[in-house]
Amino acid sequence: MGKETGRDRLSFPSWLGLALLFIGLPTGVAIAISYYMPVFLLHNPSLANYLGTIIPLMTFVISSTYFNRYIQSRGLKSQFMRRTSVKISPESGKPIDQKMIKGFEASLKFAKGEDRIRRLVTVGMMYLQNAVAYDDKDRYLKAKEFLSLAEEAMRGESPSFETKMLVENLRSKTETYKYRFGDR
Fold it and tell me: What stretches pass through the bilayer (predicted)?
């Protein structure tokens, strides 16, 4: 769960290539269209100055947002990202930020095989921790849902011993808290 593999880490040239593709190309096209088209077609340089400033700026902001979402949804890490570590333990009683959980959920779309099972267990454990912290049955049921998804994904795979233990750990933790949330 907490280990980093080399393939998750983006090298600077790879990051730069993706940034140019996601941010540089759309911004360059926006500059070309928003500045040169009004000058050559409408012969209006003041309109070209306004549009040549506003449209590329908006394109840059929107492209940067989508670039960051793409990087996060693929589970990639660049040198410029902040590292955040969270202790996932329902017994701690400390809630986990919902944005972080949603980010993990979004990255499930791109995970396959054993990595998907691990991520399902991680998200389930996060929901269980928030259920305990907020005393919320809905989050507990969401944790159980992710447990069942992980168990279902295990049926189609032959996971390692570690992965089986992670699923078993989530199962035992949900069993521990089932009476607290009235789940029989």
Answer: 12-35, 47-67
Low-confidence ranges of the chain (pLDDT < 50): 1-7
**To which H or E segment does residue 122 belong?**
helix 113-134
The string of DSSP letters for 158-182 reads ---HHHHHHHHHHHHHHHHHTTTTT
**Between the CA atoms of 55, 56, 59 and 61, what dihedral angle is there, to the nearest 10 degrees?**
-110
8 Å CB contact between 184 and 164 = no
Q: pLDDT digit string (tens) for 136-170?
A: 999 999 999 999 999 999 987 888 999 999 999 99
Q: Can you tell me the distance from the alpha carbon of 170 to that of 184, in angstroms, rounded to the nearest whole number?
A: 17
DSSP letter assigned to residue 79: T
Longest dimension (CA), the chain: 75
Which residue shows structure tokens 């791109």?
A: 110
Is residue 117 within 8 A of residue 167, CB to CB? The reply is yes
Please say whether the beta carbons of 93 and 136 come within 8 A. Answer: no
Q: Which residue has the tokens 């100055």?
A: 49
Q: Using alpha carbons only, give the angle 116, 160, 114 rounded to the nearest 5 degrees.
A: 15
Tell me the whole-structure pTM to 2 decimals: 0.64
